[in-house]
Fold each of these.
Amino acid sequence: MQVVQRVFVSGKVQNIGFRDWSVRRARDFGVSGWVRNLRDGRVELLVAGEEEAVDGMVEAVREGPEKARIDNVEARTDTERAPKGFTKRFTA
């Protein structure tokens, strides 16, 4: 079953390669969507795909890349259509 999750990650998540890491992990899980930095210091992701794959991606985000410090992850169901593939977007 296809699902879409919008994920907000706070902590030390900018200027450490979080977006590039997210793109690589998304490819590993076979999910589509995007990742971008937010001006308030968080990172936002839109993750779409099979439920198991999306759940796996969200769990990976809870750990983050080696240099990250994850303080909070908020994931919620969303209805936005994800693009094909998984891309890195500009700061919003």
Note: The first helix runs from residue 18 to 29.
Amino acid sequence: MELAQVRLLVTDFAACYHFYGEVLGLKPQSGAVDGPYEKFSPAVGSAGIALQDRTMMAEVLDELGDAANGHRSLVVLRVDALDAYCEEVTMRGATILHGPAHLTDRLRVAHLKDPEGNLVELQEWLLLHG
């Protein structure tokens, strides 16, 4: 078994496409700016984050037709230099809600939200720095 992707069901596909591609700098698989589906991948690794139009999935599972409420996901991305990456994404339109700050003695984090309100945690693993 291999984790292929984490898929987020979104209502504003274009805004989320822009956030994951342009703001966070992940690479889109096909360039389907208008959806209804797109997978984004980091420069390293094979797993990715995919966006899918929520109305498309509601055709399969009726319960998804209801509006999403509360925090239903937390996307975690590891970066090498947290402070520098936070500066980059802020210049591209992201709003950092928390951090960068130590979560533990081995981990620094920052938190932001995508246009749908999904939480994104940026992690810097301090043990990798020796």
Note: The beta strands are 5-10, 27-28, 37-41, 48-53, 74-78, 96-104, 107-113, 119-125.
Amino acid sequence: MVQHEHPDSARVPTGSPVRTCIGCRERALAVDLLRVVVSESGPQGHVLAPDPRRRLPGRGAWLHPVEACLSLAERRRAFGRALRVSGSVDVSEVDHWVRAGHPPRAVPLEQNRHKHS
């Protein structure tokens, strides 16, 4: 019997949420990706916003917080498909977030969950 070696991105702890980056299309732990949502829609299009705390309402798209993945997602027009919106999308807030070098999440995931006593 032949055993296949899985790439590092496929090895994740059991029970940890896994998402796909809309830029590079690689699967990664959700804590390593930045969630992006539509913050407002208007006649000029849709404005996207980073959601590092994963609390904003609406459908989210997931992205590695690096310029290469953001550029790929823009070039592939992946935001519109992932967020199910048509028309133009303004990624300037997300671009600013990524260029500033912020981590993908502002608070540890453990603090982001409700604790039941």
Note: The CA atoms of residues 77 and 106 lie 26 Å apart.
Amino acid sequence: MRVTISRKAHFNAAHRLHRKDWSFEKNNAVFGKCNNPNFHGHNYGLTVSVTGKIDPETGFVLDVKVLADIIREEVEIPFDHKNLNLDVPEFQDLNPTAENIAVVIWNKIKKRIQSDFDLEIVLHETDRNFVTYKGE
């Protein structure tokens, strides 16, 4: 029997959608106002879901406190109130789209949980725009 547990979190961050190898005009045509050279920000909402077998001794799939600590260490501390383009190493050469942010978060959390657990990340960039990533 496999069960899914979920934990919500949030972080606030600035970013700019921009490719260094494109001209300003091409970046502006593709990314529009999100290509603002002075950046823009979002209040990101995050749901992290872990699916696995219930441990018969504890009754947990994964202790939610452990999951909360992983999220804090891997996402909230490094991303919250940061400029993703300038302050987060993973985005030095990776455009910080919601899709790429979700994949980066998935990779950071996946390395901290049991390999037989499934992981799903849902990242809300706005109330209406969100991305789901479950791994490759």
Note: The chain is about 30% helix and 30% strand.
